[in-house]
Amino acid sequence: MSIYSYIYRNICLADIAVVGADRFITTNYAYYQKYWMQIIEFAMQSSFGSIVYYDGRQGNYLEKYFPTPNGIAINKQQNRLYVASTVNEFIRIYHLRKDMSVVFATEISLLSSPNKIFIETKNGNIWVALHPILYKAHKHMQNPINTDERSPSQILRIRLQDNDKSWVITEPYANDGATICGSSAVLFHQNSLLIGSLFGRTLHCDIDTSQIV
């Protein structure tokens, strides 16, 4: 199966993490393709989403029953896999083996709905773009030009410690949606924070990391 055929067949695709030439891991946020069936999935907080590894020829399940998987990321050493669950409000961390199989490591509860993830290269800190009020993000997606339907934005940084057995969570940025509506992606590099939104707008912030330890 070609890459294009694989992506076409996985129309519930949420995110991709590249691990090599023609090799990547994807998240499929839902099982059903019809919108109204997906709404039922989300309302029931079902575990019909999946994580799939494509090896250049075919796709293989890493996790077949995962609740609304969305953002996915891999660390620089390619031995950790991070997957966000939007509806269930957590990030799950796996040990990623050389054969691309996974072993559960830990789960971090966020009390907010994560979208996409960014991993700092030098220290492994996790940056997450989130929707603090998920139903407002959904309403914003239904009518993005309606300025009365603002979706709040939130960025969290997770600093792992004790060999990933504990962590410290800080909130470098939060907004009611007036400045940037529906934060969906985040990048951090040399004290510069870049926040992407669901529809169009990008926000750049200068961050003093010493203030968010």
Describe this structure in words.
The chain is mostly beta strands. It folds into two domains: 1-109, Thrombin, subunit H (Beta Barrel), CATH 2.40.10; 113-212, no CATH class. It is built from three helices and 15 strands. The protein has a four-stranded antiparallel β-sheet with strand order 1-2-3-4, covered by helices on one side. Strands 5-6-7-8 form a four-stranded antiparallel β-sheet, with no helix packed on it. Strands 9-10-11-12 form a four-stranded antiparallel β-sheet. The longest helix is centred in the first third of the chain and has 9 residues, at 35-43. GO terms for molecular function: arylesterase activity; metal ion binding. Its cofactor is Ca(2+). It comes from Brugia malayi. Belongs to the paraoxonase family.
Q: How many distinct domains? A: 2
Counted beta strands:
15
Which residue ranges are poorly predicted, with pLDDT under 50 across at least 5 consecutive positions? none
CATH class of the largest domain, named: Mainly Beta
**Overall average pLDDT:** 86
Briefly note the structural class of the backbone.
Answer: mainly beta
Summary, kept brief:
By secondary structure, the chain is mostly beta strands. The chain has helices at residues 3-9, 35-43, 134-142; strands at 13-20, 23-28, 49-54, 59-66, 69-74, 80-85, 90-96, 102-109, 113-119, 126-131, 153-161, 166-175, 183-189, 192-197, 202-206. Strand 11 and strand 12 (166-175) form a beta hairpin.
